[in-house]
Amino acid sequence: MYALVDCNNFYASCERVFQPKLAGKPIVILSNNDGCIISRSDEAKLLGIPMGAPEFKVRKELKEKGIHVFSSNYPLYGDLSNRVMKILEGFTPHVEQYSIDEAFMNFDGIDTDFNAYGIQIKSRIQKWLSIPVCVGFAETKALSKVANKIARKFPEQTKGVHVIDTEEKRIKALKWTKIEDVWGIGFRLKKKMKAKGINFAYDFTLPQNENYIKMVMGVTGLRLIKELQGESVLTLDNPDADKKSIAITRMFKYKLTDFDEIKERVSTFASVCAEKLRKQNSCCHGVIVLLIKTDNGENKRTRLYFNEMETLAFASNSTLTISSAAVRLLKKLYEKGERYSKAGVIVTGIIPENQKQFHLFEDENPKHQKLMEVMDAYHKKVGERKIRLGNQDLQHTWKMRQDHLSKKYTTDFNEILEIKC
DNA sequence: TCTGGGGTCCTAGGACCC
DNA sequence: TCTGGGGTCCTAGGACCC
Questions:
Q1: What does pTM read for this prediction?
Q2: What DSSP state is assigned to residue A26?
Q3: Exposed e or buried b for every residue in A377-412, given b needs 16+ CB within 10 A?
Q4: In whole angstroms, what is the distance from residue A398 CA to residue A271 CA?
Q5: Residue A353: which of A420, A292, A276 has the closest Cα?
Q6: Which of residues 106-165 of A touch strand B (CB under 7 A)?
Q7: Per-residue pLDDT tens digits for A95-112
Q8: Angstrom distance, A209 CA to C4 C1'
Q9: What is the tens place of the pLDDT at every residue in A366-412?
């Protein structure tokens, strides 16, 4: 048996943990730079605030309807997410964190009243963290997703927990689930499926559609059919596995044209990538820089994506090596006079540090490693990126727009919650 | 006239997820 | 004026190996 545990309106719920007076009140959370809406409480959904709406377009509406607005507070959400995962691990060691607010659990060989067990999971997280969750149980990962959705859609009947454990319940659930709500069917595949008369998850599992699904989705589609039919082919991913790529990308607060300004950003992103690599004890072989310019021509705003990749002669996690590769790539991409709205650095071809192959002719200066160790140790102490490269501007501090930021209640002693008696 | 069979690695691009 | 950010998997085709 698998379970999928999913936190309800996670970011909004996190904000409520430390401001309980907001219970029952509409809340929305904005993306970085307060750009657009990325999380809504149920009350805000009912008031018709759309997901993904740009803040400036709904600003008036938010105000008129008395909706509470928050900037993203990732230190808070990340910390509460870790606490949720810890609680889940108290029920079974077989937990795969699937995203910041969601995890699969596996209960192979365990026979119990899963509905009661789900209620127990839900109430423990509610009691210990004040975070509401829904739990879906089924014999495959894909079906547990479906079960979770049912738990969420019918709170009165399910109390937030639904178990698919009979053939009858499985068929009923699949006939209810729209094809676009199936895990793995996105925007494009939805259209293809509907064109073929596959409107519900149930249609997707019918034998006469198998060939078509194989044609458009390949083995991924066949696996999904089996999963929905109740045959488990997906297993828990190893939660300790290292990342295979690491990306740092940001919109700029305003359009940039100056090479040095963009270089400063790209070099900083590269430094962060290198730090993350070192944190997971790995090195990368490839560095990618991406640059986006917004074209405002012909009353149409189009984003133009550009990227370049460099394969390093040797795998590295040195800030110096990765940053200089990133700057070389930026030089290839940059065009004078253009206005850029976003940049990013991605490192790929990640391997464990101790599996590094040495290059016959070129290798990194061994001093890099020492230097990185000193930098990391110092940063661990002072907690910030105090040591930077010369191509990073020490004066210029890039502050995100965060006009509605709550406190880092759980990760910073200076912002800890005070209770007045 | 006629030229096998079996494999690996890498990359770009397309699809998806939250 | 103003529209996050960070990931995964699969496939086809090219280049190469014996």
A1: 0.90
A2: -
A3: eeeeeeeeeeebbebbbeeeeeebeeebebbbbbee
A4: 15
A5: A276
A6: 145
A7: 999 999 999 999 999 999
A8: 37
A9: 888 888 888 888 887 777 777 778 777 656 667 778 889 998 898 88
Domain boundaries, chain A: 9-72, 77-228, 246-382
Query: CA A220 → C1' C14, Å?
Result: 24
List bases, strand C, within 7 Å of protein CB: 2-12
The one-letter code for the residue type at A372 is: M
Query: Which one, of A212, A176, A211, lies nearest residue A194 by Cα?
Result: A212
Residue closest to A257 by CA, chosen among A219, A210, A294: A294
Tokens of A70: 């928050």
- CA distance to A44, A132, A228, per residue, from A210 (Å): 40, 38, 13
> Rounded to an integer, what distance in angstroms lies between the CA atom of residue A413 and that of residue A282?
31
Q: Of A373, A367, A401, which is closest to residue A387 (Cα–Cα)?
A: A373
Q: Is the pLDDT of residue A34 over 50?
A: yes
By the 8 A CB rule, do A341 and A294 touch? yes
Strand C at less than 7 A from CB of A32: yes
Take residue A408 and report the two structure tokens written for it: 């880092």
Q: Report the alpha-carbon distance of residue A21 to residue A44 in Å, rounded.
A: 16
CATH number of A9-72: 3.40.1170.60
Supply the CATH classification number for the domain A77-228. 3.30.70.270
Annotation: CATH topology of A246-382: Dna Ligase; domain 1 (3.30.1490)
